[in-house]
Structure formats: C-alpha cells, structure tokens
C-alpha cells in the first residue's frame, strides 16, 4: 500500500461508522452516480438509435469501477490514452481497447506484452515510420499488431488528410506487410469550439465524411478496413447520420463538466463530479470566502475562460450539490481557493462559517479528476458516502 | 506496491542495464541536480548574508530526497502545504514544520497525531473561530498546539491586516488561553506580478514591514511572538534588509521555472526540472511536431500567458536540456503536445524524427511536478539516469 492509500485508508478508518460528506478529509473528489448513470443512459440511447456501438474513452475516469459502468460489456470495447490505462484496465478484465495516441517504437514492447496476455490492444498511427516500426515488431515477435490509421478531419492535431491517398496507401501497404490494418479513426477537435447545435451537426458530419472517405479509398485499394471510428463528446451528441461508421468514441460525457455545459452539450445539473472543499477563512471587505480547495485539487484548467461564461476555477455548490447562484472560484493558489460573486452578477456570498463545506463543479472533468486518487461516491443529495473508487495516474 | 509503482518498477527493470534518457518511458520528469544544487546554494548564500534562516517550502518537490538536499538539516526547518506532506516528511525524519494553509477544525486530529509522534508541527490561522478551535483541541488533548497568525501584507489572499490590532489581540489572547502563539507569518503574493528588481525590493520591504509591525504589536501587548516569518521566491531573492524577521520561506527556487524566469528571478538555464517527451508525428504543412507530452504531463498551468513572453505550455530543449531557439509547446491535448515556432519568431523547427526525444521546461514547477510520481535524476548534459526519486500527491 502506498502512503497515498494509507492516508486514504486512515481517512476511511476514522469515518468508518459514519461515512458521510461531513467526515471526509478535504479537498476530495465526490461522484454523484445518479447523474453519471443518467449521462451514460443518454448517450447509449442516442447511439443505439444511430446503429453504432459505443467505445467509451476511459481517460476521463481512470477507474475500473467507472469503466465497468460506462462500457457495454465487462470486456469492452474501450478507448485509452496511455499504456498505463491499457495495463490497468486489462488487469480489470477489459479485452478490447484502442490506444488512441500515436504509437512510438519504444512503446511496442508494452503493447506486445498486453497482446500476449490476450488483450486485443490496437495502436494508431499517421506516418510511414510508425507503420514500419509496427510491421517490424509484428514480424520479430510473431504477433500481428493491429493498427488504425488516424485521419485528420479538421486540421486540429494529428492524422492523415483523407484526400492524401498516396500516404494512406503507403501506410496501409506497409502495415499489411507484417502487421494488421484494423481501420481508420478520427476525432473532431473542432467540436470543442462550440457554436450551437447546427455547428455541432456540421462537425459531426465532417468527422463522419473524413473517415468514411478514407475507409472507402482503402477498401477500393484492396486493403482491409473493418473498423471506422469517430468520436468526441459534442459530435456524439449531435450526429444525425453515422452511415459508414462502426463505432463512436467519447469520454467526458460520463461526468460532463462546465466546459461541456458552455459548449451546450449538457446542463449544469448533469455534472456528476465535484471537488469538496472546506471553508478556512473570510476576507469580508473583499467579498471573499477562502477554502482549502486550490488549483492542486481543481487543476489549473481554465477552459471556460474563452467561453461566453467564464466560470473561474469552478462553480460553487453547497454540500449537497445545489448551486449557489453566481458564486465561482474566482482565483486559486496551490491549496487555497477564493470564492467570490461572479463579476457583475451582484450575487450575495452565502453565509458560510469556518469548517463549512462546499462542492465545486470543475471546468474539465479529465483534468480535475487527474489531481485525485479516488472518487467518493454519493447518490443525489444524500450525504452518505457509499463507496471509495480508486483511480490511477501516470503512464 | 500500487500499480503506479509496479509500472515504474517495470520501467526500471527493463532499463536496468542501461538506465539512460533514451530508455526511460515517456512522458516523464527529469531533474538536473547540478542546476538544483546551484539554485539551493544561491539562496542559502543570500540569506546567510541577511542573517535569517531558510525554511524551504516542500510543496514544490513533495519528495524526501529533494527535501533532504534543500533543508539546512535533516530535521528541518521546513514548510508544507498539506497534512499529507507533513505526514510524509515526518516519516522521513523531519521534525520542524509549519503547515502554511489556514487550519480547519476537522484537520486538528491529524495535527495532534503528528505532534504526538514528536513532530513540532505548527498551524496557521487568521480568525477567532480557528483560534478557538485550536485552543479547545489543545485543552482537550492536553497538547498545546502552536499556531502562527497569518498576516496580509498586500491584499492578495488570506491574513489579518497588520493595522487590525483588535483582531490580532483577540486571536492572540484566544490562543494563549490553551494553545501556543508561536509567531506571525506572511507571503507577498504581489511579488508574482514581476515589475523588475526595484519593484521586488519594495514587495520584500512591504512583506517585512507588515509582519514586523504585527510582531511588535503582539510583543507590546504582552503576548509571545518568537517567530517572524516571511516568504516568496521573488522577495527572498530581492530583500535588502530583513531586520526583525527570523526566517524566510520559499519553495520554487529549488527548481525554478519559466514563470520565475519571466518575473526575472532566474535565467532559463537555471530551470532544473523538465518533462521528457517522444516525437510521435509531424504535421509539416502546419509547422508542427507532435509529441506524447500533453497537458497531463505538463499540467494545465499557463502562468506565462500574461507575462511579456508567453511560453505556451513550455519551452523545448533537446534530450540534453539544450534550448532550441524559440520552439514552444504551442498547444496541448491530454496526451499530445504540439511543438511549433513561437509566433513571429521565424524560428525553424528542429529536424526530429518519430521516436526522437525532447525535454520541455515547465511554466510552473509545482504544477508540472504534481502530474508525476517520480523524478529521474541526471547531472548536467549526462544521459545517465542516476536515480529515481519518488514523489507523492494527495492530501
């Protein structure tokens, strides 16, 4: 047991007889599973209607307990962003994963170890150097590594432009020489810009069109392309037609966050994860309440700073998750959060004493979650902590 | 052993015969101890000249190995920002610590546990509610808890204004009734604004004047005030006179970072900590190199975004730590970093192939370090990894 776990275990030891929101050590992560289950059901229903399968991205939760609930079966499918996630979820029984960050030659040994354990781990790539490394590792090991070609649908990050047929063909043929071409995959980075439902429908269609174009070209060239994968939480919630697509990847939909609310993909009261903090003081003449929830617990993510509504370091709720009107974490130091009325709102600070607790909705669930080693699970407005679900970090 | 440690141990298992920068898994944290030792020596020499002691803030490193080198003795003194740090460093032998975040009643049980282990852990506070809770816990436990009054020298965060004598007296008398008034403490948050050496000299003098004024008032009121503590890395490096001050706290000076370089407190080549990442692809027509060093490894800290020189998510060096001219991490996703020339610089991207490695200097050492569970120790331009120093997170 690490010291992190020891402290956590001690925390629970102390609160064994009364595991409630009042007795947890702060700052800590609170997960409302009622909201989480609603978020999962909403996307599943939507994708069922479109006739595609869901391959949830587990980078948001990094938790076997959350993974089990968000996946459609205990064995997957799932998406991961690190080999550490692949190894952890493999140990929890997941057998079908895409490692959706471009592979490097030095990481292939760990990929092969997982495949040797019976895990169908698929890598992704967008250049011939990577394809050659994957083919060579396949030949050397005697294990055909499946790889997908990453497609660039909007100039946002990595990937091959779907019109670059020469490169698609060269990568496909290089892989076919020793590895396995499993398909094509893209991610609509543009969808994070927002722009309303019609813009999201266009982003979703651009995502679909790019990857289907590449898949059709590979098929026409005599190469296999069984999997056609798209994904982002905004486009997953707005795609009207996914013809030619076999699966959708999405991650943050499981918890949602203020950024996604700002993009219009969820309501504030869909946000399932919060950071609980304790009041440590006031600066009344400045209109501030000081808590022990600084950026170390909230993360440095300020993703809403360029949205229409800047939520500071987070939006403040009471201990039950009920929103205070227009109270935000206006600033944060490493272990201090400064609660204040949103500028211009005229809102009144709540009457909170030293020792009182608040819950803060995060800008970005993936970033905030990563600052913690566990979720403390509640349902709705209950104060009872039903479970502690551990989460991991690292690579 | 947790899975984090297992993976780390496996990483080292693989590289046992050749522990070099080329064989570490990426992304990972690299610490150049030559630079670190230079940074420590510089501040020690300065404070020796001013006749005050150094109480380093260990929140930056969260590592027993770094703590041992930055403290003046193995037992301290030291400053911490969480009780987890206090517990971890107590287990490593540290006996003299200030927990420099306002105490809450619910945290006093852990404070008492540490004091019962022989650790002189001091709490801080700025209101009567906290003082009453500390006095009551002292009486109930039969252990006098030492507490310092936090002074607000610049309206930046917490603390009692030094001119608020009524509040100082009430807190001091409340503590004296059962606990121990150990002294006064302040932090010049203003010093992070920069402004050049003369501005920093003024911030340092404001910090000194505020806390000495409060100490003199407490003494004149017949209350004890043996410790008079100031501290921030910028003011520690600029104070011209510290009359009346007994100790200086500073944290980030041990590693430095781009933010501190932007404030003018260090040079770029003083920055001792970097994130090593591997090239996973290119988008040549966009002038981008893509790496596996995204914001999960760099942190979301964009502290230089409001400075004169915006360093993006970090400044890019080669594997030996030699700076590429004007190449920054222009954008980052969770596990992707986008390297590009600084806008307007006309710099050329280095000729890096898939699999090549770079080292990225961080905006904020405290935030970037917190994304990792270990430092990989090198000296200067050597590729040999001399040690793996673990670090912890959590509360």
UniProtKB/TrEMBL annotation, chains A, B:
InterPro entries: Ala_racemase_N, D-amino_acid_metab_enzyme, D-ser_dehydrat-like_dom, D-ser_dehydrat-like_sf, PLP-binding_barrel
GO biological process: D-serine catabolic process
Coiled coil segments of this chain: none
Gene Ontology MF annotations: D-serine ammonia-lyase activity
Keywords, comma-separated and alphabetical: Lyase
SMART domains linked to this entry: D-ser_dehydrat
Domain D-serine dehydratase-like: 272-379
Top-rank taxon, per record: Bacteria
Pfam families: Ala_racemase_N, D-ser_dehydrat
Family designation: Belongs to the DSD1 family.
UniProt-recorded name of the protein: DSD1 family PLP-dependent enzyme
């Amino acid at each position: 047991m690490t010291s992190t776990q020891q402290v956590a275990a001690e925390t629970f030891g102390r609160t064994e007889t009364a595991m409630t929101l009042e007795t947890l050590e702060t700052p800590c992560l609170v997960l409302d599973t009622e909201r989480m289950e609603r978020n999962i059901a909403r996307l599943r229903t939507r994708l069922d209607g479109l006739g595609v399968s869901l391959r949830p991205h587990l980078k948001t939760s990094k938790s076997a307990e959350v993974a089990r609930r968000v996946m459609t079966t205990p064995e997957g499918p799932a998406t991961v962003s690190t080999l550490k996630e692949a190894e952890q979820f493999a140990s929890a029984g997941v057998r079908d994963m895409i490692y959706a960050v471009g592979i490097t030659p030095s990481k292939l040994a760990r990929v092969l170890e997982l495949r040797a354990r019976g895990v169908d781990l698929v890598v992704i790539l967008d250049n011939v150097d990577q394809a050659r490394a994957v083919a060579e590792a396949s030949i050397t090991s005697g294990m055909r590594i499946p790889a997908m070609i990453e497609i660039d649908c909007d100039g946002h990050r990595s990937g091959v432009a779907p019109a670059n047929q020469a490169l698609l063909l060269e990568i496909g043929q290089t892989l076919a020489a020793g590895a396995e071409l499993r398909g094509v995959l893209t991610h609509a980075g543009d969808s994070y810009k927002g722009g309303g439902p019609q813009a999201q429908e266009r982003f979703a269609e651009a995502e679909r069109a790019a990857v289907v174009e590449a898949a059709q070209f590979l098929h026409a060239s005599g190469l296999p392309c069984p999997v056609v994968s798209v994904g982002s939480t905004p486009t997953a919630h707005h795609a009207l037609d996914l013809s030619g697509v076999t699966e959708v990847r999405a991650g943050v939909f499981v918890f949602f966050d203020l950024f996604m609310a700002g993009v219009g993909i969820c309501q504030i009261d869909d946000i399932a994860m919060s950071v609980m903090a304790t009041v440590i003081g006031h600066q009344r003449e400045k209109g501030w309440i000081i808590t022990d929830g600084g950026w170390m617990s909230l993360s440095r993510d300020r993703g809403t700073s360029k949205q229409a509504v800047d939520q500071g370091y987070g939006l403040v709720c009471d201990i039950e998750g009920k929103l205070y009107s227009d109270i935000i974490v206006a600033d944060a130091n490493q272990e201090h959060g400064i609660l204040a009325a949103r500028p211009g709102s005229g809102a009144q600070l709540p009457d909170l004493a030293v020792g009182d607790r608040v819950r803060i909705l995060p800008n970005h669930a993936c970033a905030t979650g990563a600052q913690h080693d566990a979720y403390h699970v509640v349902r709705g407005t209950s104060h009872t902590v039903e479970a502690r679900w551990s989460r991991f970090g690292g690579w």
